[in-house]
Write a structure and sequence with these properties.
The chain is mainly α. The chain has a two-stranded antiparallel ribbon with strand order 1-2. A hairpin with a 5-residue loop joins strand 1 and strand 2. It is globular, with a radius of gyration of 16 Å.
Length: 127
């Protein structure tokens, strides 16, 4: 089965080629990593998403911060933070590709998953 998965970190929205419409309706809301893993398992994609893909995504995100660290906070202020939104695409080999980084990400609580995830993320950011 040839698939083309697109996952947006944090949202993990999925689109699949081939029978696109059948898959699209399954993912009208965002998925947690365990829910996304269940989907991968259901279509027989041999991948442990958290073990194999998430570390690659974290490495890409880390590289972007390192690349612009002096521009993000040139005055080295203490007790400040930024929240960024990262968009990734995952190819058929389960390799993540960074699409863009948003400096003003949408924090809309538009699904039950995001209603749990976003408040916890913001709370952890200001601790």
């Amino acid at each position: 089965m040839s698939i083309n998965l697109q996952a947006l970190l944090g949202k993990a929205s999925v689109a699949a080629s081939g029978d696109y419409r059948a898959h699209f309706s399954l993912f009208s809301e965002q998925l947690s990593y365990p829910e996304f893993q269940k989907y991968l398992d259901s279509i027989n994609v041999a991948c442990n998403f958290v073990k194999d893909v998430v570390p690659q995504i974290k490495a890409l995100a880390t590289d972007t911060i390192k690349a612009v660290s002096r521009k993000i906070d040139p005055h080295r202020r203490h007790c400040s933070f930024e929240i960024f939104g990262y968009d990734f695409m995952i190819d058929e080999d389960m390799k993540p590709w960074l699409i863009e980084v948003n400096t003003n990400p949408c924090l809309e609580l538009s699904s039950p998953y995001l209603a749990r995830l976003i408040p916890a993320m913001v709370e952890n950011a200001i601790k």
